[in-house]
Amino acid sequence: MNFYPLKFTPIFKERIWGGHKLRDYLNKSFDGNQIGESWELSTVENNISVVEDGEFAGLNLNELIEKFPTEILGSKSIEKYGLEFPLLFKFLDAQQDLSIQVHPNDELAKLRHNSFGKTEMWYVLQADEDSKLVVGFENKIEKEEYLTLIKEKKLVSALNEIPVKKGDTFFLETGTVHAIGAGVLIAEIQQTSDITYRLYDWDRVDANGNERELHTELALDAINFEVSNAQVKYAKIINQSTELVNCPFFKTNILPVSGEYFWKKQNDTFTVLMCTHGEFSLFFDNEGYEFEKGDTILIPAIIEEFELIGNATILEITI
């Protein structure tokens, strides 16, 4: 088989807080005006990504892995996760504030939901003036104080709000209370999980006048009440791959390409590239592939080297 860089058809999610930046900034094509999420690469149940073009067009990611496990995933991923694809990649557009929420760790998620936990990271692609993220508590609090704040609908007063701009990066360990604020467009990299405990939703109602469900009791055992140090400081160096996050579940580097860049790796794991700015050509096996801002590409493990030419900012993710 001739393996190649794989692009998948995005899975769009309408959200009460969604907007139109996925279309305006990332060139996504969809109907509707409240699209909050573009799931770029997913094996979440009922949300399996499908290859968009090339020899494998029409195959979903699970089918591809079943046919070519080592070639796609690599031995390192198979040893750790079997034939499960361990990560989920998204772009999110918050036209309104997202709910205040928290995600459980692996142990709690396995016990309650037979799922991975949800460790994740955010990379800000664009942020309106005065937009913010909520990341953890401003000061350490006790569980009893937290419950009082929930009851009185004053939780927001205890949270750490951080003004953000393009390029800001955050690593969110499980247990970190968080929310994406209105006006922020992000790339999100996370474990393959769709488990979220909602703590507060700004008293919003849907078209039928119903509030969304809160998960106060479930969240109690999941929350880290300490202060979070989630923001990642890094240097952005042209044609150099620089580490952003290195955790047990994924590793993410940032690569600003200007001109030519020769990329080489071992063949023991897959790599995912998310283009957050600009455009580039990828040359592999005497073939050229064109990508631009908003594209997410799965590089099968069997591919060990290729050349990038262009002007772009790329997130490189592996395990």
Automatic annotation (TrEMBL):
The Phosphomannose isomerase type I catalytic domain, residue ranges? 7-115
- InterPro entries named in the record: Carb_Metab_Reg_Kinase/Isom, Man6P_isomerase_Firm_short, MPI_cupin_dom, PMI_typeI_cat, RmlC-like_jellyroll, RmlC_Cupin_sf
User: Which GO terms of the molecular function aspect are on file?
Assistant: mannose-6-phosphate isomerase activity; zinc ion binding
Instruction: Enumerate the residues binding Zn(2+).
Output: 103, 120, 178
Q: Name one GO biological process term.
A: carbohydrate metabolic process
| Gene3D superfamilies documented for this protein | Jelly Rolls
Bound how, and how many: what does the cofactor note say?
Binds 1 zinc ion per subunit.
Q: Recite the UniProt keywords alphabetically.
A: Isomerase, Metal-binding, Zinc
Matching Pfam families: MPI_cupin_dom (PF21621), PMI_typeI_cat (PF20511)
Which stretches make up the Mannose-6-phosphate isomerase cupin domain?
241-316
Co-factor requirement: Zn(2+)
Record-annotated active site: 198
Query: Which CDD domains does this entry report, sorted A to Z?
Result: cupin_PMI_type_I_N_bac
Q: From the Swiss-Prot or TrEMBL record, give the protein name.
A: Phosphohexomutase
- In its UniProt entry, the species of origin is given as Flavobacterium urocaniciphilum
